Amino acid sequence: MSVSDAGEFGLIARVVTRLGAPGPPAGPGDDAAVVPTPSGSVIATTDLLVEGRHFRFDWSSPYDVGRKAAAQSLADVAAMGGTPTALLIGLACPPSTPIEIVDGVADGLRDECALVGAVVVGGDMVSASEVCLAVTALGELAGRTPLTRAGARPSDVVVLAGTVGRSAAGLELLLAGVRDGPLVAAHRRPSPPYSAGPALAHAGASSLVDVSDGLLADLGHVAGASGVVFEVDVAALRALVPGVDVRHLLTGGEDHGLVGTLPAGVDPPPGVAVIGRTLPVGPAGGRPEVRLVGEGIPPDLRGPHRDGPAPDGTAGPARGWDHFSH
Amino acid sequence: MSVSDAGEFGLIARVVTRLGAPGPPAGPGDDAAVVPTPSGSVIATTDLLVEGRHFRFDWSSPYDVGRKAAAQSLADVAAMGGTPTALLIGLACPPSTPIEIVDGVADGLRDECALVGAVVVGGDMVSASEVCLAVTALGELAGRTPLTRAGARPSDVVVLAGTVGRSAAGLELLLAGVRDGPLVAAHRRPSPPYSAGPALAHAGASSLVDVSDGLLADLGHVAGASGVVFEVDVAALRALVPGVDVRHLLTGGEDHGLVGTLPAGVDPPPGVAVIGRTLPVGPAGGRPEVRLVGEGIPPDLRGPHRDGPAPDGTAGPARGWDHFSH
User: Fold this and answer.
1) Percent helix, strand and coil across chain A, each rounded to 5?
2) pTM of the predicted model, to two decimals?
């Protein structure tokens, strides 16, 4: 059996079991870990990016790759309700790599960190056959409760900060040979709504995740972990992110928008929009799922969308990007 | 200009400059970063390990690779005087990788962490052409001052916890076709003296580093950063680590022994031995360096050994492993 036979989620489940999963507050499926310290806690998250799989230097400048690599991990900290403080960078690359690539990546990492007041505090550089960036972000909660995927409650509203689908639309354009325009720029350099994470925590949000696998997949994870049903208003999504195909809105990751839940009646913080509502799982036989309401939803996306395997053992449709099958 | 033209230390200096080096307490040359938090500080360090360059599955089992990968980063935390608390793991590997490799690495990471009471709290798994492990370790100081390479003072004694040279001796045997014995085992699975880090901090140590580039190179870094001269007693080293060639004792890394300085007259903690003394840099023209005293030192290692470029611009002999030239 190979890792591709196991698939990403199967592999993660297997490894987490062997490692001995850490307990609450945050579990293996959350955007980041919450590490207890003698006097509080630290948020920590690691991401790997491999050239040709997660970025391409013919599509993105080294500077943009640095910006995007930092953004990915900093957004994970924000998705826990945290404020990023520090980045650690591992860079593996062939000895023949032009120094301008390293310079550009470093500049991009630095400038994205500067947006949130974080700094690159350490790292490692080694020789390898391909370029691989390992980015670890640390952050702090300043006494706030971490926002996990398990806290959504019936009667909450569903909220979105930032955008969805624009990066995926930009990727489609890049694949078609287009090399500029706002959607291509959104793919090269996402703009996560960093401050919305702590703001939502402060406002009493009950759950929050970074949209990395697509809105349906990530909300499906939250529905499953929280034991609720989400009803998402596609018209509200369309109004928030105009000019993007509904398929990208529902399945595109990499914008690093933040989606979660807020008690009904609470005013959303600036830049945060209501896109749906939370319902209880129905009577016997009901299951956590994401339902879509609105016009113009492609038939294969109508749902309902559920997290993880269906009762018959087949994988549910709300399954995200599987790195090992691509 | 390529990264191999710049060399590891040149590349690190260049990148650190671009990133904007963090200030004290710990600088870019130290084993780990010290990240301030609202209520204390967190130690953090990242290492990358690439198959075929940092480990070989025909020489080491996946379990041993996991143990060694964790040990490398956990030892960096100990070298700051810290206690490791958490590991984050990035694993890049080809989709065809047998699942037993992932299982074994995970088990090894878990068991090495268990030695120090740390846990793997998070990670990422992605597809790549070669196996690359990114290991980030976090730790705490519990109010102790971090032990950097810049604190050694004249009249301190030089101390060593753990061993040096045994891993390098084991590597030489592996290269010669030997596949077992205690030195080969020491290469496959180092045993860093984790508890000596906090114990030395508690005892008032003035500097401490993990020996990763070899004793001469790493002590050379401390001499340079602290502005002192070290005099190392080779006979004391031989007595501490019997059966290992003096060249390996002086230049071998990867045992992850801890070397540093303690005020004269302070009793070394258990497992810590005195191997030399610290002197002031002499009058005008004197420079920080490492001197060796004792019998049987190979002529090319007699020194003195200095950190960084010599005044004529050539690299000094106390230069460590350069990943990008290998």
Assistant:
1) 35, 25, 40
2) 0.92
